[in-house]
Amino acid sequence: MSDVGVRRLEPAAITGVMSREVANFRTFWKATAFSSLLEPVVYLLAFGLGLGVTVVDKVDGLDYVEFVGTGMVATAVIFSSAFPAMFGTFVKERFQRTYDAILAAPVDVEELVSAEMLWIGLRASIFGCFPLIVTMLFGLDPSPGMLVVPLFCFATALGFAGFGIAVAASVAKIDQFNYVTTLVITPLFLVAGTFFPIDDLPQGFQIAAQVNPLHQLVELVRHACFGFQATDLLRFASLIAFALLMWRIAVRRMSRRLID
Amino acid sequence: MSGVRKRFGPITAVGGLDLEVPEGICLGLLGPNGAGKSTTMRLLTGQAIADEGRIEVLGRHLPEEAKAARAEMGVTPQLDNLDVDVTVEDNLAVFARLYRVQDVQEAIDRGLRLARLTGRRRDAVDKLSGGMRRRLLLARGLIHRPRLALLDEPTVGLDPQIRTELWSLIDGLRTEGVTILMSTHYIEEAERLADEVAVMAAGKVIARGRPHELISEHAGRETAEVYGPPSRLAEVRANAERQGLAVRPAGPAIAIVGAERAEDGEVPPEAIRRAASLEDVFVLLTGEEAE
Contact, A225 vs A145, CB < 8 A? Predict the structure, then answer.
């Protein structure tokens, strides 16, 4: 008898599932890369140059373009992790029945969810850097700390991928994603410190921002560009903890959804 | 499977199922829609967990060792779940990796030959016809040379010509010694491919045997079909049932099963006599019209 399928979290199962994602991604990568590159340009033109020139000059000692450009990394990460995880998982589970096919092979739900999260995390860690690259064209100076930005993006994207998968495994209809977008993702996105500093908000919002993984990512990216602080290790640890928590929740929700 | 039960809320999909599939045979699970065939398939892959009973597949206990058991079985699902934007060969390559096949390229080439799609290897799946997609689905489930193939309604919804093509593929597997468990609600499919047939109804096997054994045990040698207006059919039916003969609907006619046992006058002279069939057995046992 072969020993395939005996161990937990087998790398071959995880890379097998990821190879399916790669094969599919090859069919639509151009459209995704195009929007991921163009979106920060549009935001930077609208907020950075528009608002920066006419209303705001400097925020927290940074040019407004640099402030928004570095903050936009978090926006790119959540858009390229939570949304693909929510919609992609739901479509693959409900309409394409892809997971039925995969789970008929020697792959279990934990490996399936882990592979999906890793793939989304890898993609988002690349797309998350696009705003930074675009901001450099608008005057942001490169710095060695920027080299670890993909790592921060990856950790955050893992968490939001897990979140999206768990949501997809919990809703009955695809329209119910609207509740999640309005009640969870938009507030997280707005109180992340991307477009304005959190320090000026009422204290309640400031406390809420501390448990917002996107805010932690925004802070880490800004510190990577302009100088790390001692608390950054704690911030990174909180992102890892968020990813681990969401991983377990996603595995649990998907097991309930996929195994009768 | 021994004493296996599976409920979905108030519905019992599988109700005390006992089923053993000897190595090297093709066993047809024949039953009407809702008989529990697909749930049985999902129980065997560990995608459904039994509420009661014991399941062992290829020496592995389920659900604990489901993943290891799946490594040695191949599944062809009832619904097409291929990746439609991806090429034919990439669809096969992904599953070769999922099944840990050592030589992925060799497995792809063999899968393409099996599906007779070598010339279409770089085409996206959504460019293929329905029959080609079905062949690819079958080849995908066999990419790792499984010991056991689970075919869930492998030809459902296909036109007769494509169905015949798939039958020859499945027949080829049987001659290679692959053990096959195939669910179907097509009588002809079960008759043509299965060494043994298990008739399922309400989540249980209600009869099992070689097709000719089932026919002789439950339907005798001869069936007489009588056509006519409803009043005449009712009269013939009542007369035959009074004599203890089984009668079943057969489209516009009625069929008197076991007609060779009828005494003079019980089967009207205008009746068309034919050899008893698996369809007679199926309808008598399940009460459902055959397809």
Answer: yes
